[in-house]
Each structure stands twice: as structure tokens, then as C-alpha cells.
Amino acid sequence: IGKHYAMFEAIHGSAPRMVGEGRDIYADPSSMLRATVMLLRHIGYFEKAGKLENALDKIQGEKKVVMTGRDTGATTKEMAEEIKRQVGG
Fold this sequence. Notes:
Layout: H1 16-20, H2 30-42, H3 46-61, H4 76-87
């Protein structure tokens, strides 16, 4: 919203149905984290934004962690651990 104000959000809701179905541990944080990349760039943290974006691109492109939203895929914690590994944290 211009140069002074901005809003960043994930492209999905909070997924309360997943919680009700006991699938909350399989929620994919990618959309929220991609919004975080945009926020970091907006406030001038270009290097940090690039690291996070590169990590997400690599994880998804190389299918290092596959999120399905079900027990057939990775958990949110597994995704977070891989992101942390990729950014060197």
C-alpha cells in the first residue's frame, strides 16, 4: 500500500478444520513464510529474505520435504527443521 504501509498474509486461512480433524501437525507453513519474505524485503532485510526464499525454493524444488496436509506427508516440525538447516540456523 504505497511506500510507507504494507500488508502481508498467507493465501489461506488458519485451517481450523485441520485442528478439528487432528491434522494440525501437518499444516504447511510455506504461504506464511513466503509472506514473511515479502515483509522482510519491505523493511530492508534483503539478505535474510533471500536466505529464506532460497531455502523454501530448494526444499520445494528438490522435494526435500513434501507437505500433503495428511499423515502421508511431512509434519510442520519436519518442514521447520529443514528450513532451519537450509538457512544455517
